[in-house]
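[SOLVED] Need 3D model of a two-part complex

Original post:
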Amino acid sequence: EAGVAQSPRYKIIEKRQSVAFWCNPISGHATLYWYQQILGQGPKLLIQFQNNGVVDDSQLPKDRFSAERLKGVDSTLKIQPAKLEDSAVYLCASSLIGFGTDTQYFGPGTRLTVL
Amino acid sequence: GENVEQHPSTLSVQEGDSAVIKCTYSDSASNYFPWYKQELGKRPQLIIDIRSNVGEKKDQRIAVTLNKTAKHFSLHITETQPEDSAVYFCAAFNNAGNMLTFGGGTRLMVKP
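Solution:
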């Protein structure tokens, strides 16, 4: 089966600029996750969607980060304005149903560098 | 919320030796514990997982053990090979939080 797709793979921007990332989950997967992985650390969940509804966004810095999954399929994550500390790999993952014991499949990630 | 601690942060072994990575979690309600392998520049991939009603699970050279009382779980890799070199992440999930919390990762280096 096709895996989780993400674009772009790399992005370099200056602080205070805006950036958007796109994710297309595995076909039929109801749940989509966005994680932030800072160099040398484990992934940290930013937001979780079940179909087109938000299940958890408690760790999303809502003053600058936003995400949507309007039709319950692909999703975009936006940062506006970016800060130096946002430099990280942004990973998208999807799972079939969305309960915790459901395997999460990760995309290749978008490496963001904020200068 | 859940807190997952992972040790060691780096581990170097000789090819053919065993490697053990340990994780502790804080929330006794956690009931699912996956392990992911992430090669340099690539996506994390699930290698094995264990649920709270099981104490041990094996898959060829990889095994995971879970001690619910002590709230810790471990990954065991036997007969290590150079291609096992990667960063390994443990994670814990509980239904209350509906969130998977990852450990900080262990960089495993297998020397030929």
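Edit: The CA atoms of residues 42 and 65 of chain A lie 20 Å apart.
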